[in-house]
Amino acid sequence: MESSGAVLADLHPNYLRCPSRNPSSSSSTLLFTHHSSASPSHKLQKQLLLASYQPVFPSPIRRCAPLSDTFRVSGNIELNPASGVLNLGQGLFEGMKAYRKQDGNILLFRPEENALRMRSGAERMCMPSLTVEQFVEAVKATVLANKRWVPPPGKGSLYIRPLLMGSGAVLGVAPAPEYTFLIYVSPVGNYFKEGLAPINLIVEHESHRATPGGTGGVKTIGNYAAVLKAQSAAKAKGYSDVLYLDCVHKKYLEEVSSCNIFVVKGDVISTPAIKGTILPGITRKSIIDVACSQGFQVEERAVDVDELFEADEVFCTGTAVVVSPVGSITYLDKRVSYGEGSSGAVSQKLYSVLTRLQMGLIEDKMDWTMELKPAKAY
Length: 378
Ligand SMILES: Cc1ncc(COP(=O)(O)O)c(C=O)c1O
Hints:
Elements: H1 4-9, E1 11-14, E2 25-34, E3 45-53, H2 84-88, E4 91-93, E5 96-100, E6 106-109, H3 111-124, H4 132-145, E7 157-166, E8 179-188, E9 199-204, H5 222-225, H6 228-236, E10 241-245, E11 253-256, E12 260-265, E13 268-272, H7 282-293, E14 297-301, E15 313-318, E16 322-331, E17 334-337, H8 345-358, E18 369-372
Parallel strand pairs: 9-10, 9-16, 13-14
Antiparallel strand pairs: 1-2, 2-3, 3-8, 4-7, 5-6, 5-7, 6-18, 7-8, 10-11, 12-13, 12-15, 15-16, 16-17
This protein binds pyridoxal-5'-phosphate (PLP).
Pyridoxal-5'-phosphate is lined by residues 95, 255, 258-260, 279, 281-284, 317-319.
Keywords: Amino-acid biosynthesis, Aminotransferase, Branched-chain amino acid biosynthesis, Pyridoxal phosphate, Transferase
GO biological process, one term: amino acid biosynthetic process
GO molecular function: branched-chain-amino-acid transaminase activity
């Protein structure tokens, strides 16, 4: 199976708007067609959920109309050229995964955390947002409608991408008058096909991902366009990704383009504290709890870039990779290597515990998974 990026790039949405049952909103649903030439099943279709709604009160507000759970065949997404998302970047997304269990049931991992993060992002971006319950119900309905696309146990997962955007027209700099929420999904393979593969990072000391008071702490779309230049330059030089520093002192670790970072020294695992400039990762939060349960001491604090040179191990966390060991980091032409080409013991241990919990292979004592029981598994 292809990696998540490759599979996502192959998605071709087709949808048709349908009238809302609620007069204050226009809800519609969509059906995605997967045109992957690599897959013999490319003629099969996946269903996606789309719901549009208008704020009932002037922004910023926190109300939206009920979502429809009816799915419809749809076409390319249609947006007003003056929409808030296209002109102002008023948009948020989330990323989550669903795993198939041996008994055919499907496991979601902490979906309410994604719902809460989207709500806090919506507040920052002056957007109305779904309640936690609405968000989780929409995710469940979309996954169940696409149950045939959840890979068999051990063969990958269903990546779930909820999107919230200002779809209404706005000429000035103001919140959009209408918002659209949609969810699309795609099956993805295991990120690491043959065990954990260490990545090579370069510390970026010129450009910054986020500023105090900015939007680095929420999952808004513009944060990602902003990292493409440094990331592309790093990749062109053979690095896997960029590690950002804080923009004030230019010496404290922040995060990688789409992952949080952890530094291991003995039994102490340190990670940059959440203070508005880094994304509060759900994997980060989970790994902190897993690490504590495994007897490690976890410190959330300012982590100096120089600590990288004293560390035993460094790893990144995120939904896509879960835990990604770092093989080397380059900072101002100084390079430090970890693990001699293989993943460190701590990364390996934490990866193993968390992925087995997410896949339903060990008891979920944390109560983090949500089990969906499709009427017919495949
Ligand atoms: C900037 C950034 N940091 C960290 C993460 C990791 O967050 P999570 O563990 O919730 O996937 C992501 C991925 O969503 C991200 O985009």
